[in-house]
Automatic annotation (TrEMBL):
<keyword id="KW-0028">Amino-acid biosynthesis</keyword>
<keyword id="KW-0436">Ligase</keyword>
<dbReference type="GO" id="GO:0006526">
    <property type="term" value="P:L-arginine biosynthetic process"/>
</dbReference>
<comment type="similarity">
    <text>Belongs to the CarA family.</text>
</comment>
<dbReference type="GO" id="GO:0005524">
    <property type="term" value="F:ATP binding"/>
</dbReference>
<comment type="function">
    <text>Small subunit of the glutamine-dependent carbamoyl phosphate synthetase (CPSase). CPSase catalyzes the formation of carbamoyl phosphate from the ammonia moiety of glutamine, carbonate, and phosphate donated by ATP, constituting the first step of 2 biosynthetic pathways, one leading to arginine and/or urea and the other to pyrimidine nucleotides. The small subunit (glutamine amidotransferase) binds and cleaves glutamine to supply the large subunit with the substrate ammonia.</text>
</comment>
<comment type="pathway">
    <text>Amino-acid biosynthesis; L-arginine biosynthesis; carbamoyl phosphate from bicarbonate: step 1/1.</text>
</comment>
<dbReference type="GO" id="GO:0006207">
    <property type="term" value="P:'de novo' pyrimidine nucleobase biosynthetic process"/>
</dbReference>
<feature type="binding site">
    <location>
        <position position="304"/>
    </location>
    <ligand>
        <name>L-glutamine</name>
    </ligand>
</feature>
<dbReference type="InterPro" id="IPR002474">
    <property type="entry name" value="CarbamoylP_synth_ssu_N"/>
</dbReference>
<dbReference type="InterPro" id="IPR006274">
    <property type="entry name" value="CarbamoylP_synth_ssu"/>
</dbReference>
<feature type="domain" description="Carbamoyl-phosphate synthase small subunit N-terminal">
    <location>
        <begin position="8"/>
        <end position="138"/>
    </location>
</feature>
<feature type="active site">
    <location>
        <position position="354"/>
    </location>
</feature>
<comment type="pathway">
    <text>Pyrimidine metabolism; UMP biosynthesis via de novo pathway; (S)-dihydroorotate from bicarbonate: step 1/3.</text>
</comment>
<feature type="active site" description="Nucleophile">
    <location>
        <position position="262"/>
    </location>
</feature>
<keyword id="KW-0055">Arginine biosynthesis</keyword>
<keyword id="KW-0547">Nucleotide-binding</keyword>
Amino acid sequence: MSSTTAPPPAVLVLEDGRRFIGTSYGAAGRTLGEVVFSTGMTGYQETLTDPSYAGQIVMMTAPHIGNTGMNDEDMESRQIWVNGFVVRDPARRVSNFRSERSLDDDLARYSIVGISGIDTRAVTRHIRSAGAMRAGIFSGTDYSLSDDEQLSLVRGVAEMTGQNLSELVSTPETYVVPAMGESVGRMAVLDLGIKRATVTYLAEHGFEVHVMPATSTVDQIRAIKPDALFYSNGPGDPAASDEHVTLLRTLLTEGIPYFGICFGNQLLGRALGFDTYKLPFGHRGINQPVWDKVTGRVEITAQNHGFAVDAPREGITDSPSGFGRVEVSHYSLNDNVVEGLRCLDIPAFSVQYHPEAAAGPHDSFYLFDRFRELVSARANNGDSK
């Protein structure tokens, strides 16, 4: 809704001392985190409610944000997870028949401190050059803090490297979503920051989906007698999730078919014995080109990750952890980052991107069919547990 009252000032402060003055957007106050940019021109609600963005201040590179409002149907989780939100030109009014409330309303409702009216292109170019970094948004009474005080607060925030954030965003207790159509078995899903669309699509592909807390033990997973295992997307550093890696190694040894996306791809990489590393500024948005080495097809994908698997891009490699032969199945056409892993001697594969992207694109939706076929084939061959 338009207003004749000018919004109060706000400032985005980067850890290298750069400052960008704008106006307060959403809640007023102070927020701190890693500043990243997302190149998606649509789907801002899915971005805001994606648990993978916990701990981050998200800046949208598309200049005009908010015109389609917000609704309950497109929520990917129970709340907005971003630490802060940065836009150039927020919509003055909502204009969409599906809207139930404005973006401004939801930002205030979830106490998300934001800033608008800054040169987001300049910030993006700076991050692409200098790398993702810690930042803070200051408005309200915090806007009056001295430059040195604001910068000190920013530099006092923990870096994303080394952070384990899965428990922060995971479900507090297990819940079950029944299979739709012909059932292919029971799936244990480790919720490391899962999106609602993922659960829906897994159920639509015939899995009885047991969504379990990030703190689940191997005995708790064994207790449901799963026919398949899934690790979801999620925030944080995969190198700080040793317990999830150990859990995965145990279940891979038992022959349970595995599918992982995003964080689940990084954890499969570590379980197989590869390292992970932090990208300079990450991949975030819904227009990321990926090469499928098997089919030769280019997929336009939705991505949100700041870490990647360090594995040989060409050829077949023996798993350092003893799980047989592994190959990189997909890689980024922007920077050659590993975007998928395929195990040749155990039933496991993963991708770094989001085949469930509710806001699109849907080029990679076939991966759900591929996993269903893998699990069904093993059951028909008598390999299921």
